């Protein structure tokens, strides 16, 4: 058994992984890890399903052909050197990721900023929390998150702003729920959408998108009126810019704020009162705040409220930016953003000189490099001629992603380090380098609360894969810097990183790992999760020249009126059980069950007005491009706003990509794209037939069947394709493997059903209809694993009654909606715990508990309605 850390979100849960034979792992929560105390969400729980070798990149590839490491690395080093020699250091770039370990990150940053001599290294964290970084620096003087998870155990009020915590940081959400159950802490959610995070909240403010500054300024104006502003604290610890209170006061009466935010004055007042009644407030914020064209101001508007009321630096009171990726925070510590240097230093001349001295750098970068959106623009314009992408998938995840694809396609030299063989970005690479994946890697990550945890190697390196730090170090050596990169393992790198944090640091920089500067290899191996900067602002001192924090005047920007040609606003985000571009969660049959296709959620009135019904296929278009989604009317959507998930790529769908839709516009301070609101339209796509195809593993190809709409998910034993299209459907038959065919047809409904049997076992089924219904997929999928073929196969169900359990809600225990509703009605269950007792749902990882609460509420309301009619 090894104790390691979950590679998904920034909660940073401890995992116990025990190898069981060949490339299978038993996964449990680590009871001794302070972040999760033994709990795991659905994604962490199913990590074991993602460590197989299917789809892995196992060898270096040059121009699509297998090559040796020597050849591949020689080529990378030579092309970088030649480009730099000809066009200067700024003609090359690295685009890296919050999913690298700190040690990988440190080495890549050192190579670019200290040796190549350019600031052109940026990370996907630019898309993720750079507005929080910029906001922290403006307010505190340094990018220090002033909160930790123990604050959640002590707070009396949680305000979640632009965060779908129940889905994206589930263990943090469970910890808040525990505080509510134990101590009656209150929960306010501020999100234009009604997400599952709102399910059980004391208050949900479904504000107009982009109106968060008005809301926070309104709250602050109310706090001033109500005497909640801590004047003594302001005097001692905070500098207040001239005119600050005038700006806060402007248009901040209850009615004006309610109008701008489009919520009722009563609801707004309730929020203010909850805030007034509970000094121990933690405000958590995430992408609804950061991913906005005024993201940094939104961050500061939140921090202002906490500084002015003295709700910071005390147990249970803080603004808390929660990080997305497992090592977003570690990336900030090593300075992986183009706008920062290393160890919380930046590009001031003395910092540049200091880091240069420490590294004995031959050519220090002296200025910020290009931020992600600018970087790909420079690739497009030919200013950057060689780019190395590590552990991120920009062809999917960047805004205006088709433009990024064009830029990559035209770039003279593209290197991609990834764990998977076939990614949307990898298709543009001249050289592909096989990286070690989670469970094979060794190093550290830092979570949302600044806690450094070890990721430990549990499985051997497969094929010729290598850790990312090794790949960078070997390249650096080939570029002539072997001695500066002579690391034997991650412990060497970690020590150097810790030494740099302490170097010439007499307390100016709070980020300081002095105690690890000489950590031995054994101590590094055995390192327990450890936090730096405990209660950083407890004494009311901040890392600014005068020791004071700063209020920042923020003004609500004018909210755009709907455009004539693009009347809707597209909001984008995440699903509970998928991670980003699905390269890893997509391997898990269990996780696929929660949402099998990319949906566009739309308010039911809008849907009706636009002639869209549940299950239709719709085209969502923006000035940047268009994608297809399955329509899902949802009461949780405000009118005029639609929501699509970020996860589907060109690998799993013919049209369900979201990333090509947003504008490449960014916040002026942070450079973070405004992913959450893009002017858009939606229209129904006429289809003539709908179908699904189930293929056993061997028959699954890298490409998708020829259909207008095709999505693929992994199922136990193979893959399930959902399909829809127009015209001739016979082309699909070519996708069936060779074997004995059983066919049935119903010409009246234009229905066809085909099963292919190979060696007495089911190898494939295709069910298609033009006007009829398609049966549930579950039973047919299960037949892939059956030892023999059932005669009723083409009926789509088992002989005799086959209960259809509906969509799976509890993925751990495989319990469907209908089973849950049945239990609630028959056993008259009244709370989520009772559902758990009766049928087990929600008792394992707990990620589905908010969904259970919603189903319970809906079932009870329906029952009451029926009762009333009776
Ligand atoms: N399951 C899962 N978990 C994840 C990830 C994943 O891919 N899958 N990714 C991880 C990463 S990298 C990140 S960054 C985090 C992201 O975690 P979150 O930020 O919680 O997730 P999102 O779904 O991107 O967006 C959060 C919410 O912001 C709301 N929002 C949109 N516009 C506004 C606005 O103007 N104001 C306010 N107040 N809210 C608004 C959206 O409606 C959405 O519900 O999740 C991490 N955890
Ligand atoms: N429209 C819209 N777009 C968004 C967002 C949004 O809310 N809306 N959110 C943005 C945010 S917050 C984020 S964080 C990004 C995420 O977007 P990406 O970073 O592009 O998404 P991932 O799928 O996590 O990409 C990680 C890649 O690294 C590979 N990989 C995994 N582990 C390793 C490793 O150890 N080494 C190497 N070399 N490779 C590895 C994976 O196979 C995968 O290809 O998306 C951003 N894009
Ligand atoms: S909350 Fe879930 S995804 Fe996030 S670190 Fe914990 S187990 Fe992993
Ligand atoms: Mo993120």
Helical stretch tally: 28
Based on secondary structure, the structural category is: alpha/beta
Major β-sheet, in short? 7 strands, mixed
Helix content: 25-40%
Average pLDDT, all residues: 95
**First CA to last CA: what distance?**
59 Å
Percent in strands: 15-25%
Oligomer: single chain
Low-confidence blocks of residues: none
Q: List how many beta strands DSSP finds.
A: 34
List the strand order in the largest sheet: 5-4-16-15-14-6-7
Ligand roster: ligand MGD, iron/sulfur cluster, molybdenum atom
**If you compute it from the alpha carbons, what radius of gyration comes out, rounded to the nearest whole angstrom?**
27 Å
Overall form: globular
Describe, in plain words, how this protein is organized in 3D.
The protein is an alpha/beta fold and 870 residues long. It has 28 helices and 34 strands. β23 (617-622) and β24 form a beta hairpin. The model has no long low-confidence stretch (mean pLDDT 95). It binds ligand MGD (2 copies), iron/sulfur cluster and molybdenum atom. The site of one ligand MGD has 30 residues, from α6, α13 and β21.
Topology (elements, then pairings):
Blueprint: E1 2-5, E2 14-19, E3 25-29, H1 42-45, E4 61-62, E5 65-66, H2 69-87, E6 92-96, H3 102-116, E7 121-123, H4 130-140, H5 149-154, E8 157-161, H6 165-168, H7 170-183, E9 186-190, E10 203-205, H8 212-225, H9 231-237, E11 238-239, H10 244-249, H11 254-261, H12 265-277, E12 281-285, H13 287-290, H14 295-308, E13 318-321, H15 328-334, H16 349-359, H17 372-380, E14 386-390, H18 394-397, H19 401-410, E15 413-418, E16 431-434, E17 443-446, E18 451-455, H20 468-481, H21 490-502, H22 521-525, E19 530-531, E20 549-550, E21 568-573, H23 589-592, E22 599-602, H24 604-609, E23 617-622, E24 625-633, E25 641-645, E26 678-684, E27 689-696, E28 709-715, E29 718-725, E30 740-746, E31 751-758, E32 761-769, H25 778-783, E33 808-810, E34 815-816, H26 817-826, H27 832-839, H28 849-869
Parallel strand pairs: 6-7, 6-14, 8-9, 8-12, 9-10, 11-20, 12-13, 14-15, 15-16, 21-25, 22-24
Antiparallel strand pairs: 1-2, 2-3, 4-5, 4-16, 17-18, 18-19, 21-26, 22-25, 23-24, 23-26, 27-29, 27-32, 28-29, 30-31, 31-32, 33-34
Helix pairs in contact: 2-20, 3-15, 3-20, 3-21, 4-14, 8-11, 8-14, 17-19, 26-28
């Amino acid at each position: 058994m090894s104790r390691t850390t979950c590679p998904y979100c920034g909660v940073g849960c401890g995992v116990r992984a025990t190898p069981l034979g060949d490339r299978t792992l038993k996964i449990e929560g680590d009871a001794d890890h302070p972040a999760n105390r033994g709990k795991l969400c659905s994604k962490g729980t199913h990590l074991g399903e993602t460590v197989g070798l299917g789809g892995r990149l196992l060898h270096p590839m040059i121009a699509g052909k297998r090559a040796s490491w020597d050849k591949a690395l020689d080529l990378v080093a030579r092309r970088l050197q030649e480009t730099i020699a000809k066009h200067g250091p700024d003609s090359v770039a690295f685009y890296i990721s919050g999913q690298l370990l700190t040690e990988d990150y440190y080495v890549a940053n050192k190579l670019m900023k200290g040796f190549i001599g350019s600031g052109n290294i940026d990370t996907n964290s630019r898309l993720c929390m750079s507005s929080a970084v910029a906001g922290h620096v403006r307010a505190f003087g340094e990018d220090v998150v002033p909160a930790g998870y123990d604050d959640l155990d002590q707070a009396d009020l949680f305000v979640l702003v632009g965060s779908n915590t129940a889905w994206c940081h589930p263990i943090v959400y469970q910890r808040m729920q525990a505080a509510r159950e134990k101590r009656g802490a209150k929960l306010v959610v501020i999100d234009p959408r009604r997400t599952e995070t709102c399910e059980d909240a004391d208050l949900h403010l479904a504000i107009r998108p982009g109106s968060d500054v008005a809301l926070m300024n309104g709250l602050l104006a109310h706090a001033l009126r109500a005497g909640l502003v801590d004047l003594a604290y302001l005097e001692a610890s905070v500098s207040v810019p001239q005119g600050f209170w005038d700006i806060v006061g402007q248009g901040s009466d209850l009615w004006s704020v309610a109008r701008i935010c489009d919520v009722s004055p009563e609801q707004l007042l309730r929020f203010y009162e909850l805030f007034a009644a509970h000094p121990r407030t933690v405000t958590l914020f995430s992408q609804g705040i950061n991913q906005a064209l005024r993201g940094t101001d939104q961050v500061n508007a939140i921090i202002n409220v906490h500084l002015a009321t003295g709700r910071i630096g005390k147990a249970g009171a803080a603004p808390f930016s929660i990080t997305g990726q497992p090592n977003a925070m570690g990336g900030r510590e090593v300075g992986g953003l183009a706008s920062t240097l290393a160890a919380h230093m930046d590009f001031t001349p003395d910092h540049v000189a200091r880091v240069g001295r420490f590294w004995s750098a031959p050519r220090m970068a002296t200025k910020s490099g290009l931020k992600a959106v600018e970087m790909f623009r420079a690739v497009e314009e030919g200013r950057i001629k060689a780019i190395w992408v590590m552990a991120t998938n920009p062809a999917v995840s960047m805004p205006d992603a088709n433009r990024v694809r064009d830029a990559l396609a035209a770039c003279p030299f593209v290197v991609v380090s990834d764990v998977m063989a076939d990614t949307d970005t990898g298709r543009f690479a001249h050289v592909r380098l096989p990286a070690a994946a989670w469970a094979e890697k060794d190093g550290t990550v830092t979570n949302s609360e600044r806690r450094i945890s070890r990721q430990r190697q549990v499985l051997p390196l497969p094929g010729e894969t290598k850790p990312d730090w090794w790949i960078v170090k070997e390249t650096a050596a080939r570029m002539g810097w072997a001695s500066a990169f002579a690391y034997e393992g991650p412990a060497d790198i970690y020590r150097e990183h810790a030494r740099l944090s302490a170097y010439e640091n007499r307390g100016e920089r709070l980020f300081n790992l002095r105690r690890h500067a000489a950590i031995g290899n054994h101590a590094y191996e055995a390192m327990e999760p450890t936090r730096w900067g405990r209660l950083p602002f407890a004494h009311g001192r901040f890392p600014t020249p005068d020791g004071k924090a700063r209020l920042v005047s923020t003004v609500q920007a004018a909210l755009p009126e709907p455009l004539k040609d693009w009347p809707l606003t597209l909001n984008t985000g995440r699903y509970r059980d998928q991670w980003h571009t699905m390269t890893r969660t997509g391997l898990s049959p269990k996780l696929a069950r929660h949402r099998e296709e990319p949906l566009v959620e739309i308010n039911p009135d809008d849907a009706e007005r636009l002639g869209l019904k549940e299950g239709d296929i719709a085209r969502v278009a923006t000035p940047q491009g268009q994608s297809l989604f399955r329509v899902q009317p949802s009461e949780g959507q405000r009118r005029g706003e639609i929501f699509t998930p970020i996860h589907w790529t060109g690998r799993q769908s013919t049209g369900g990509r979201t990333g090509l839709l947003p504008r490449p516009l960014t916040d002026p301070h942070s450079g973070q794209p405004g992913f959450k609101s893009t002017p858009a339209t939606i229209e129904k796509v006429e289809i003539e037939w709908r179908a699904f195809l189930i293929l056993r593993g061997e028959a699954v190809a890298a490409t998708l069947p020829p259909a207008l709409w095709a999505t693929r998910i992994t199922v136990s034993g193979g893959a399930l394709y959902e399909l829809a299209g127009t015209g001739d459907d016979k082309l699909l038959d070519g996708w069936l493997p060779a074997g004995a065919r059983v066919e049935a047809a119903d010409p009246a409904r234009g229905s066809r059903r085909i099963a292919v049997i190979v060696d007495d076992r089911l190898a494939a089924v295709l069910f298609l209809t033009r006007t009829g219904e398609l049966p549930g997929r579950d039973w047919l999928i299960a037949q892939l694993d059956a030892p023999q073929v059932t005669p009723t196969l083409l009926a789509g169900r088992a002989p005799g009654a086959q209960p259809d359990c509906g969509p799976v809600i509890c993925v751990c225990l495989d319990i469907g909606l209908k089973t849950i509703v049945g239990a609630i009605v028959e056993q008259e269950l009244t709370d989520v715990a009772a559902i758990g007792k009766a049928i087990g749902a929600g008792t394992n990882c707990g990620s589905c508990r908010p969904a259970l609460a919603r189903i319970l509420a809906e079932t009870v309301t329906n029952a009451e309605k029926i009762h009333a009619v009776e």
